[in-house]
């Protein structure tokens, strides 16, 4: 049944699981319907709405809830399993009154992960209470592993093939077409695609790979999408994603990428992309990871050359040449990128085999507790970052990552936007030698329109404050 | 590599998972290899040995360990997943040096369930610490559900089809052939078979059904085997079982049967079979279950008529006619039994649909806490049973069940056998009106050779002591 | 192994069947290797080369053979089946030295169909000698059926879903993108795509549908490609096609379309497209087909509106309003086209069910012998066409179809091009009332660049000669 | 709908294809319904009835038709494919009113093969007119290949695994159980089973293998049954057979066995078994086949030792020691038989690989025209056999084979029985040195009850006439 409203048409529907089947215990069903203590209703409802809103560019978490105030989702128990009763859902999720199957699967992926891993609504971090030991680095890694395993992502036997693609959700047509060509070339070489869901550089490679996979008759290609409740509204998964996982927070999502992926491609993007670059470089700079093969390519069409030159300079200025040695920049050559990743994954395979590490999960990669702990982007936390030249490089990378993470939150996340509305822009303090390049980089993002969706003016949510070390506020 | 010893030849092997794939976290693998606090090594090793010993009749848990003192099993991590390194395994698990695939699958089922559900070696009940709330009736049911779901037993969409078959592991050739004929007729009607694993009445229906399923081209027939660590050595799963689950204890195993099964067939057997009959009648006598359709047929060849007449009398004498109304006795008519179960499952289906209960798990069946709590068969606990005419019928059934359970333990379980060795036979006290029929029934089992495997003399592990109520010892 | 030549790099390879497996008898293998009487080597070699050349726009059958003079293909017998030994194949069929799987499948489809249906190299019509009775209308239809059945195209049980797409292989970027959008909308609605293979309007709908099918998780989408030895060099199948059939000649290919398809979409094209339109209208004008639902939509982007207006006028001028009533023109509305076809197929389904005709083959459609007999485009045959107003409409349509067919041959087919080289342009005679509109239509095709691939000048292979009836040459 | 008649209850039903789907052209459907020239109705009806009568021991082809005089089968065309409308079919083919799926598949296998290969009702040999050249040895082999390929039996890629089992349809319980044990051991080793359909030694190995395959989780085990219209009534395929092929006549059926099988086991049997033994030895004695590995084992329980001793003597007396060197006799050791066949198939595999012959069809085996030509068992033909010591051994084997073939026909085939009724027993003439052993062997078959089903008295259909060569009648 569809209703017609002026701007945002909605539809009611009942949907059954498709493909992977979900069975809930009575307790689990009750928690999904409960809004009280231990209840999961709100998280489930919000993520479900985001999934249903796919295809509608939007980068303001708050706005989605405002558009569909009457949206609701309920679990119905039937003899043959559960159904979802959905009201006032975005009409774009339907074709002639039928929900698109890919979106239907996403709804049940949301349900699965919210039950399994996002149990705690107390704000303490997300993962199901009691199930994991989130106080230790090993415990967090274990949680990421279990969430991926429960989602069917971790599979033995199969060969390494996961190419992670990072990049902006708001990119130009030319850049978007370029991401499709890269996906096509990777698909022709049998690589699977993993992205953060959402439009732009996260969708293009999957579309291209779909054509490549079809030509190669790859029967069960994998299009992995890793997201988290805070970003899913702005980066709604496109329905090609056939393995969607909702990790509990930003840090576990990033850890999922680096442990489940085998090769890494970075397309042009904005601050989110910079955050991902700094996260991965921070990890790779750790001495324990020095020997790990880790194929990492920055690429774009000719027009993106300047963008990557600036990123490269920024990395050189702040983290130095060792960091620069961990990636290659390839401009306007999709087949070369695909060959580079394909070959690199071959080296990853040999390394894992040699060291008896699993193909499906990079256990050997050292991810310091620093990179695992959730960062709440408050004004106080942002001000407290240590952006100094004399910090160890991988810790400096960690705090630079947090700085960009805060800007992402201020740009598109519900919580971050509210902070900014309440207290004004974040202040980011640090050595002038770091603040200078950072300001330049952020300004170039603004100038290139990489901060927001096209057609909207950007109002910066941050202020860069160069300051000598002694001036830093105490933690 | 095979070694030749005088009596029990052994083989070494490395095996990979087949069919369902298992992936372990580093923590899980460590626990399976550890014998200390929280370690699972011993349970894993013992269950694995039982699985490998299939096909060798044996009903003394102690003896198995004595036969293969050098048996060992280790987990090896490889890039494509885990392997098991097995030493000094019973040669009968192999054909020309290759492990039988069905047994290989059973090893990985053992691994899966020991990791998931049998975590606690402290003896407090078995299920993984922290995962379930075993203090409440709902919590125990939830644990049973989760263990079955984790094992892939609980599947939505498919129609009710599970025929549970109970009966002796030590039966005559004629009775065994009869169980095959029943299995064949049920297989022809598309029913799946669920038993407690092991030989005799637990194997025959599966063999028969295999032929019936082949003729009906049933692509993925299900042969479910539910066992528990205490009984698996004596009732080693036959390799036809393609969904093996190791529940943590007797009571959860029984609950798994009644919640996952749709129809129930009881063949001749010994005390174990009597235990199962009393368990199910005790539950069905609960007023909350009065409306539940629950197809239950006792059947055997002509020669078993007397056996069932005695059981029927015993039930009439102790639990009364209401209990007798919950089952049908059908002698020597396999097609009639199969039609009765098939029709009954049709009524179960209608009832579940009507009441919106799941086809795959009987949530509505009330199983009182009494029936869920593990019963440790010590001399004190056996003496304390309340076998009095004026107890509520379903509680009397519960204690009768425990009495038979104790005899089973004394006959074939490692722990029970040691108790008897140490303290002599169990004493079972109760009203003469109950103790009389009980003694008669047990004596008839001894006379009919239903207590032990053929060719061994039976030495009773119990003593029936009729006593008026006032004489009962206080709890 | 790859060789580098100045312009057309080539590769050697040995390939095994993938997907559908082919087994040859000794006799069949011998015929495929033989160039003499009854030998199939030349047809096999030429079609194989066309298949391997996919992705390289080319519309001159002669040129392909000139580009790869050393290309060769041999059958090798191995214990596990046959292999193909290929030398000097176009390098574009390979990715990093591996043949694209889709192309590999096409090679074996060529092999299958050449063995089964293209046995006769004598030119007498193509189908395997002795197997079919090609002298009767029923016999020809039977041959088409058997060829499709042997290719696995005719499948029972499945619902009608085949949307045939016709249109030019040489279209503008805007038109091409439009065909992708139509394909996408049809894919979202679960429709399968059938085209004549080749680039342009025959490739776009498949690419679009691939994305739509991925979003709908359609497990085994069908991309049917029907071609014939005379056209395959110019319209090399794109590798998305996963059910390729090589029919023996133009007429059987056209009959395959109308009998296996359920809905029909016509995009802008050139004379080939006009030929297809006249063929289908000629059949639909037969009184026996008056009651058949037959969804037929002409569609294109806004810029194609003029093109279809001209076609529509031409049909009105020559065949009249009854013909015009059998199609709908929809401009620039992909979702509307998909809905129209989807709905129309629903009516086809109802009609077939009602009349007990097969979903998988339109047996009831009357195709007159006139439309089935191969037309050899010689100067004499072209001159002999009866393009007169007073012919019965469906016979006039048949001869108009032949006229356009001759122009296609003169434009792109090996044999036709040689005829023109030898004897100059074809002369097409007829009533001025028909010749006028025909000349106008053909001229508009030339003006719009629809006669040849972009970037080549068109040199007409025909001359329109209006002439009153009495002037017609005798047959 | 079921009817009750005094002795032979019947059922009406409509059945659809299951598993492999069949699609008929209009012409094919018409021929199956036609009884006139080129019509296939009678063959189809008779074979269909035989298939439906499975499970009812019967060895007189005439009797079956008498039991079910009103049986009829019609093809119905529906939109989703064909259905069969069946009237007055044997009730034993149904379970609770539903036709057993295996039997349903057999009906459609009959349909497929009758259409494809048994087209000619003129009696000239069976295969579809025009399709094959039955005048040459190569042409007949080609026909066998095409019939098997059309039935999906000939499959590339898979490894050699087909163990052909020959033996009596009327054997003792002990012998039957032994054939099950052999099947079980072969199933455990992954071998597929091929027999001539029917009960006894043709059913036991399949039942045993079904259990072995289940334990080894062999997903798609193959149970091949090769039969022919003349024998199918007496040897109705058991429903475990999942690849049934109806070859046109005795000789093509035998050739199918030796070309599609990889290992050969002979159980005790009667004249049919002797016929098979002589057929295979005749072929193996040809010098061109001397180098071919061809695993051939005669086996039975201890009680069958005498039987095989007699066969062995007969072979020694008539064909000599070279013939005796081509088989092994193994008594009462199922695992040894399975290992012998399994190892022998390994040698077959190596030989085929080395000689590049197909795994799926033994092209290299020389089968002389002598062994391929249908033998019509008339009194004249029987009298004309050349059973002389100085014939070349492989030709003597051929005529001995024909002699036994004639006795089979006289025992159980419709046509043969009528001949005997009309003209009295066949006369078999030959050298006393051959006639002596032959008479002894046949007499021992009679004495051991191997000529007929248990419980029926045997009335010999032949008379052995020793006679010196010069007395032989002219051909």
UniProtKB/TrEMBL annotation, chains A, B, C, D:
Residues 14-118 form the Pyrimidine/purine nucleotide 5'-monophosphate nucleosidase N-terminal domain. This is AMP nucleosidase. It catalyses: AMP + H2O = D-ribose 5-phosphate + adenine. Residues 346-465 form the Pyrimidine/purine nucleotide 5'-monophosphate nucleosidase C-terminal domain. It holds the Pfam family DUF4478. Its EC number is 3.2.2.4. It comes from the Bacteria. It is an enzyme of class 3 (hydrolase).
């Amino acid at each position: 049944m569809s209703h017609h409203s002026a701007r945002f048409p909605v539809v009611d529907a009942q949907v059954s699981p498709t493909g992977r089947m979900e069975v809930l215990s009575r307790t689990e069903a009750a928690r999904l319907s409960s809004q009280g203590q231990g209840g999961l209703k709100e998280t489930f409802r919000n993520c479900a709405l985001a999934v249903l809103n796919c295809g509608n560019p939007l980068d303001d978490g708050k706005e989605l809830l405002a558009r569909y105030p009457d949206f609701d989702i309920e679990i119905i128990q039937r003899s043959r399993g559960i159904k979802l009763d959905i009201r006032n859902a975005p009409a774009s999720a339907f074709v002639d009154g039928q929900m698109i199957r890919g979106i239907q699967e996403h709804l049940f992926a949301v349900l699965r992960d919210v039950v399994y891993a996002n149990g705690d609504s107390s704000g303490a971090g997300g993962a199901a209470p009691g199930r994991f030991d989130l106080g230790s680095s090993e415990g967090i890694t274990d949680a990421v592993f279990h969430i991926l395993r429960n989602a069917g992502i971790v599979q033995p036997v199969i060969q390494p093939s996961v190419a992670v693609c990072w990049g902006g959700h708001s990119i130009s047509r030319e850049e978007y077409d370029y991401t499709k060509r890269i996906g096509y070339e990777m698909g022709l070489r049998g690589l699977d695609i993993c992205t953060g869901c959402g439009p732009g550089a996260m969708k293009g490679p999957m579309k291209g790979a779909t054509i490549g996979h079809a030509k190669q008759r790859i029967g069960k290609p994998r299009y992995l999408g890793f997201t988290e409740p805070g970003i899913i509204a702005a980066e709604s998964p496109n329905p090609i994603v056939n393995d969607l996982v909702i990790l509990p927070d930003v840090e576990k999502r990033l850890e999922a990428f680096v442990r489940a992926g085998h090769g890494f491609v970075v397309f042009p993007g904005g601050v989110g992309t910079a955050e991902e670059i700094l996260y991965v470089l921070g990890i790779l700079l750790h001495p324990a990871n020095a020997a790990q093969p880790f194929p990492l390519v920055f690429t774009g069409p000719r027009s993106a050359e300047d963008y990557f030159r600036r990123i490269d300079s920024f990395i050189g200025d702040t983290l130095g040449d060792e960091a620069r040695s961990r990636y290659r920049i390839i401009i306007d050559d999709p087949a070369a990128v695909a060959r580079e990743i394909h070959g690199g994954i071959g080296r990853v395979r040999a390394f894992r085999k040699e060291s008896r590490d699993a193909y499906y999960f990079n256990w050997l990669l050292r991810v310091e507790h620093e990179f695992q702990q959730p960062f709440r982007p408050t004004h106080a936390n942002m001000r407290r970052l240590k952006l100094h030249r004399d910090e160890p490089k991988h810790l400096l990378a960690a705090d630079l990552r947090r700085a960009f993470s805060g800007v992402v939150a201020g740009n598109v996340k519900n919580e971050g936007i509210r902070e900014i509305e309440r207290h004004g822009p974040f202040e980011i303090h640090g050595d002038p030698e770091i603040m200078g390049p950072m300001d330049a980089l952020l300004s170039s993002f603004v100038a290139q329109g990489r901060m927001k969706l096209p057609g909207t003016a950007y109002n910066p949510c941050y202020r860069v404050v160069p300051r000598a070390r002694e001036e830093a506020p105490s933690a």
